[in-house]
């Protein structure tokens, strides 16, 4: 499970509101719904049309924002962000939204994703006199926008977005406009909804349900949406490209009550479980899933296999996802605290344990051991995704294959390392069909680079800034 990843970076959640007198409060609720996407820091920026205010801090939404602090964030427009940090990268300056002020006005940015050419752009910007205040790749975009010169803000944003490469879903805000952008391949999810006469934007549609908003549509790949007092205007900063939404959004990251490109996440995960049961049957007595992201796949596996689904593992609801913890020591302690085996369910049984993925193998080994210590006769591990053999450069910071157990061990070797009686993964074709079957807009599938090594963009290209050509 992704709780094992070391040094994950920037799989975050963003939420925005335009045209509502309680925009900060709505953004607070929206970020609550996206809390699973980041627990290390949160922030909100508001605008009353003339002035922008920012509040942010380390921790959960409840830790960062009291009612008094929210009351100070007046204005009918706002953007918010939840994030987690890598070790050594959790400074206050990196908590988003990032806020910049200049003689021509303010600019706030919130970003989900990762820019693969950020380091090259930073080097070029610094060589030309820019002074970067954070280690976040998001700051690069602000500098690119500012260096576009005296052009309308939407034009400057389009120019900046045309220079960056990678995965990004952006919310940007000035005193009088809200800008929404998705990268040319739509690697990260981003949707628009409405609440009365107000517009709302969210990484996941589940946040719309929390505030009573109605889903309108997803932000298209390569699209810049401009929202102001005149309504919503759509612009294009990049030519249309076949969408390659990150498959791990369906496998793990998104909440099961969210919809991605018209597909419900819970339904997709159930289909993964059913396909896994067809591909890797085993004689067993019960099926259980690792809470929370694997429950849907486990239910699907049990239905297809004709076996009872049972709560063989219970999660402590007051402990967050272990992958979000900023150090390995805290992650390991988190695994011990977050799960318990239900002895009355697994004792004397042959158990199928369904999980969403295996990254380093540490957590899987502990869970298998936990089930056997609770009396399970056999533990057969079934993974509802293919082996993760390749680094991700688009927001899941597994930047080297050395930390990926599947890149260095065979399935048989992993089976022995985690102590399972058997181990099987879902095939790439099985995953692709489970997620995208019947969805014409994604008929060629999403990004599966971590499974296949086929990256939808160039990696670390030698990008040249347009103004250097003059």
Automatic annotation (TrEMBL):
<protein>
    <recommendedName>
        <fullName>Amidophosphoribosyltransferase</fullName>
        <ecNumber>2.4.2.14</ecNumber>
    </recommendedName>
</protein>
<dbReference type="InterPro" id="IPR029055">
    <property type="entry name" value="Ntn_hydrolases_N"/>
</dbReference>
<feature type="binding site">
    <location>
        <position position="246"/>
    </location>
    <ligand>
        <name>[4Fe-4S] cluster</name>
    </ligand>
</feature>
<dbReference type="GO" id="GO:0004044">
    <property type="term" value="F:amidophosphoribosyltransferase activity"/>
</dbReference>
<keyword id="KW-0315">Glutamine amidotransferase</keyword>
<keyword id="KW-0479">Metal-binding</keyword>
<dbReference type="InterPro" id="IPR000836">
    <property type="entry name" value="PRTase_dom"/>
</dbReference>
<keyword id="KW-0408">Iron</keyword>
<keyword id="KW-0460">Magnesium</keyword>
<feature type="binding site">
    <location>
        <position position="392"/>
    </location>
    <ligand>
        <name>[4Fe-4S] cluster</name>
    </ligand>
</feature>
<keyword id="KW-0658">Purine biosynthesis</keyword>
<feature type="active site" description="Nucleophile">
    <location>
        <position position="12"/>
    </location>
</feature>
<keyword id="KW-0411">Iron-sulfur</keyword>
<feature type="binding site">
    <location>
        <position position="293"/>
    </location>
    <ligand>
        <name>Mg(2+)</name>
    </ligand>
</feature>
<feature type="binding site">
    <location>
        <position position="355"/>
    </location>
    <ligand>
        <name>Mg(2+)</name>
    </ligand>
</feature>
<dbReference type="Pfam" id="PF13522">
    <property type="entry name" value="GATase_6"/>
</dbReference>
<feature type="binding site">
    <location>
        <position position="450"/>
    </location>
    <ligand>
        <name>[4Fe-4S] cluster</name>
    </ligand>
</feature>
<dbReference type="InterPro" id="IPR017932">
    <property type="entry name" value="GATase_2_dom"/>
</dbReference>
<comment type="similarity">
    <text>In the C-terminal section; belongs to the purine/pyrimidine phosphoribosyltransferase family.</text>
</comment>
<keyword id="KW-0328">Glycosyltransferase</keyword>
<comment type="function">
    <text>Catalyzes the formation of phosphoribosylamine from phosphoribosylpyrophosphate (PRPP) and glutamine.</text>
</comment>
<comment type="pathway">
    <text>Purine metabolism; IMP biosynthesis via de novo pathway; N(1)-(5-phospho-D-ribosyl)glycinamide from 5-phospho-alpha-D-ribose 1-diphosphate: step 1/2.</text>
</comment>
<dbReference type="InterPro" id="IPR035584">
    <property type="entry name" value="PurF_N"/>
</dbReference>
<keyword id="KW-0808">Transferase</keyword>
<keyword id="KW-0004">4Fe-4S</keyword>
<dbReference type="InterPro" id="IPR005854">
    <property type="entry name" value="PurF"/>
</dbReference>
<dbReference type="InterPro" id="IPR029057">
    <property type="entry name" value="PRTase-like"/>
</dbReference>
<feature type="binding site">
    <location>
        <position position="356"/>
    </location>
    <ligand>
        <name>Mg(2+)</name>
    </ligand>
</feature>
<feature type="binding site">
    <location>
        <position position="447"/>
    </location>
    <ligand>
        <name>[4Fe-4S] cluster</name>
    </ligand>
</feature>
<feature type="domain" description="Glutamine amidotransferase type-2">
    <location>
        <begin position="12"/>
        <end position="230"/>
    </location>
</feature>
<dbReference type="Pfam" id="PF00156">
    <property type="entry name" value="Pribosyltran"/>
</dbReference>
């Amino acid at each position: 499970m992704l709780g094992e990843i070391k040094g994950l970076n920037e799989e975050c959640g963003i939420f925005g509101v335009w045209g509502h007198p309680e925009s900060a409060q709505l953004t607070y609720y929206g970020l609550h719904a996206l809390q699973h996407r980041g627990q290390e820091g949160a922030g909100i920026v508001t605008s009353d049309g003339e002035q922008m205010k920012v509040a942010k801090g380390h921790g959960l939404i409840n830790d960062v924002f009291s009612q008094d602090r929210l009351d100070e964030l007046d204005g009918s427009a706002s953007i918010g962000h939840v994030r987690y940090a890598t070790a050594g990268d959790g400074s206050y300056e990196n908590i988003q939204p990032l806020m910049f002020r200049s003689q021509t006005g303010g600019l706030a940015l919130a970003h989900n994703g990762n820019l693969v050419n950020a380091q090259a752009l930073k080097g070029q910007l610094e060589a030309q006199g820019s002074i970067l205040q954070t280690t976040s790749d998001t700051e690069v975009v602000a500098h690119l926008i500012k260096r576009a010169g005296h052009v309308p803000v939407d034009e400057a944003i389009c120019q900046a977005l045309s220079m960056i490469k990678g995965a990004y879903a952006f919310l940007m805000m000035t005193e009088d406009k809200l800008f929404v952008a998705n990268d040319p391949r739509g690697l990260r999810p981003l949707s628009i909804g409405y609440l009365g006469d107000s517009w709302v934007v969210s990484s996941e549609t589940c946040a719309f349900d929390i505030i009573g908003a109605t889903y309108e549509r997803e932000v298209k790949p390569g699209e810049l949406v401009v929202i102001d007092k005149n309504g919503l205007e759509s612009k294009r900063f990049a030519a249309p490209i076949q969408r390659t939404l990150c498959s791990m959004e369906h496998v793990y990251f998104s909440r099961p009550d969210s919809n991605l490109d018209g597909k419900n996440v819970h339904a997709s995960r159930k289909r993964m479980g059913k396909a896994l049961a067809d591909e890797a049957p085993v004689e067993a007595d019960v099926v259980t899933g690792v809470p929370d992201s694997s429950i849907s796949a486990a239910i699907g596996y049990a239905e297809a296999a004709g076996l009872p689904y049972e709560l063989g593992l219970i999660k402590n609801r007051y402990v967050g996802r272990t992958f979000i913890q900023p150090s390995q020591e805290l992650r390991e302690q988190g695994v011990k605290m977050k799960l318990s085996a239900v002895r009355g369910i697994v004792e004397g049984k042959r158990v199928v344990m369904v999980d969403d993925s295996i990254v380093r193998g540490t957590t899987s080994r502990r869970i298998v051991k936990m089930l056997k210590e609770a009396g399970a006769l056999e533990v057969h591990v079934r993974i509802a995704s293919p082996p993760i053999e390749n680094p991700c450069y688009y927001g899941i910071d597994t930047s080297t294959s050395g930390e990926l157990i599947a890149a260095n061990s065979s399935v048989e070797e992993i089976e022995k390392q985690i102590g399972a009686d058997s181990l099987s993964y879902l095939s790439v074709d099985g995953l692709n069909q489970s997620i995208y079957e019947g969805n014409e807009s994604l008929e060629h599938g999403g990004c599966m680079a971590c499974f296949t090594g086929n990256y939808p963009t160039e990696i670390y290209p030698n990008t040249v800034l347009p103004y250097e050509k003059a």
